[in-house]
């Protein structure tokens, strides 16, 4: 079994590794763990034009990397467990629905993408991209703090707002701003009915959600879980303590992987 970890928008492979390494060593018999940097993230040297940031294009790149790393074609490769966070959840879904890898199980953590292009919960990201391009990281962050988008998120979740501000200080944030402007314009699926295809092929899935998270609404996770016919793991809000959320996430995912 190969486990593939996929990070969120603006993060890198160390995000899911930090969260799930303890889970994978205690709950998962995996021959290998592959944590990937998406285009324009982490150590990836790739930038590109708008079309390069379509979810299916990114998913194909990631699947090709996994296939090359495991020395097989998609049909011949070992069974795969996908674990994706936010954007990584959407990419994991596209990989699984497109049968780009032989996915047996998938964990979708705090999904943010649904059936709509640029939904309200993701509208801050193109604004951040525009501010980075026009003002640079420091002045752009200051301007963003004054925006209604920031203030709306901060009122519901100070840690969620801090995460948005972190986009301004991410490595090479201005040079890589295209990721923030283009990726949120994707939808994860055409409609919830498309999700049922995963269960019909025998792919087991788990969806993880947390309350009071404006960028990753509970309603999106509920739609994913209903469409997939999967259990919904509810973990504590980040603003009630990140350690509590992390502990609940690790325990819940470990229990599901062992089941």
Automatic annotation (TrEMBL):
<protein>
    <submittedName>
        <fullName>Alpha/beta hydrolase family protein</fullName>
    </submittedName>
</protein>
<keyword id="KW-0378">Hydrolase</keyword>
<dbReference type="InterPro" id="IPR029058">
    <property type="entry name" value="AB_hydrolase_fold"/>
</dbReference>
<dbReference type="Pfam" id="PF12697">
    <property type="entry name" value="Abhydrolase_6"/>
</dbReference>
<dbReference type="GO" id="GO:0016787">
    <property type="term" value="F:hydrolase activity"/>
</dbReference>
<feature type="domain" description="AB hydrolase-1">
    <location>
        <begin position="4"/>
        <end position="228"/>
    </location>
</feature>
<dbReference type="InterPro" id="IPR000073">
    <property type="entry name" value="AB_hydrolase_1"/>
</dbReference>
